[in-house]
Amino acid sequence: MALILDLLWQAVQMLLVVAVAPLVLGVTRKVKARLLRRRGPPLLQPYSDIWKLLHKEAVLATNASWLYRTAPYVIFAATWVAAALVPTYATGLLFSWSADLIAIVALIGTGRFALALAGMDVGTAFGGIGSSREMLIASLAEPAMLLVVFTVALLAGTTQLSSIAAQMIDTPVGVRVSLALALFAFVFVAIAENGRIPIDNPATHLELTMVHEAMVLEYSGRHLAMIEAAAAVKLVLYCSLLACLFFPFGMATADKSLAAVSLGLASYLAKILAFAVLLPVGETLVAKMRVFRYPVFLGGAFAAAALAVFLQFVSRGF
Amino acid sequence: MSLFTDIGHLLAAGMMILSFLLLYQDRITATLNVFAAQAIVLGLAVAWQAELQDAPHLFVTAAIALVVKGGIIPMALHRIVRRLEIHREIEQVIGGGPVMLVGLGLVALSIMLVFPVAGGVDSLAREDLAFALAVILLGLLMMITRRNAVTQVIGFMSLENGLVLAATGAKGMPLVVEFSVAFSILIAFIVFGVFVFRIRERFDTVDVGALDRFRGDRGD
Asked: Could you tell me the pTM of the whole model?
């Protein structure tokens, strides 16, 4: 019985991230539109979009290989697994032993690798440009992300997300300089990885500077639905990571009673909705960057994270 | 480790981060704004120290930092920059990436230097001192990487911010010293102001690279 209940909680966690992903995307789009004094699409529009795409015919280029057809599923699967591993509303779930931060970084990297290959597969110019830029961003963002992981790991003594969150709730480490630096770096990395302004504009299909949209330009139908869904899940994944690492309050820990779990669920939803509102607010405040400025942007994130790790190494007082 | 010392650390670290922003910023007006922000954070940090150490005279220092360095000096510099008509100028910052790496190295150096020396002191003073030394070294680095006389002055001022932070971290610094430091900075600021206008009159630019031609030891 206990096992069934554990499985149930784990299933809730896995389905939750996929279920709320289009909603989070819808909220960001709505807020962005309202800030620009437009009305914007309805909140549930991303659900309808994915539904529509799933029922449309998938058009393939004549020279598309098997890689092109399987990549969308690989991307979605890798992103979903990564997102499902991050503790959202509770720690210590059935599969949380596998929720290692470095494993999650690797899963995100796998998805990105598949996407970049798919972008180059058909051999159009845009796909190649998109893939090359995506890899440029990744090669700058991933080291910064790993350094953020090391900072948190040095503070908590483990890279396992569930234990980190549980430890942060039980014995709060307080306001730390290194955590503040890591938070700063993490937000920069998350913006770059999700292709938001100032790195990439998610709302464009026409710009020469586009990255993510350039890679998926040739996709249609169910393949595009998978890729869009994966992008939405990735946004939720980064929001959940942010909530789990830096704002873990409200999560259900050892106590899995209905009250604790519903409190955890409510606080999780409140947190990611808050991030979904803050993201477009930040986006409207800055302008899109030139491609050649990306290294400076992500170099800043790397420097902050490196400093955080260094401070942790020297003294646990930081 | 209480919340109070943590916030003290955070403010000192905030100053150091702003020093990095100063290093990397290439627009003159933005540099001035970052400098003003650093002075304001300095004021908050000193006020926090005053509260922690129960030393009311430090509030005077905090007020000086807030009003003079956070308000008057940036405003005066904004006016100078406008009168020199260089407020739209984008300065060629030397390096960028390498300078940031050197900056990180300097932070490491200052921490390595302070920790063994100040081993016995309580952790707030020790880590504050490390951050203060980092701010000083980053100010020096900014002075040597800039070519524009105005941004060199800003580097000098941010160096002085680090000095004040270091001084307030140590217990029992007399107010006279604070005042004399503040005044010497003000005088230095005035001297620099005159100096900048003189360079401009003579060479039609505030780029100190123009001075190189007049160095006697070149032999060309």
From this structure: 0.87
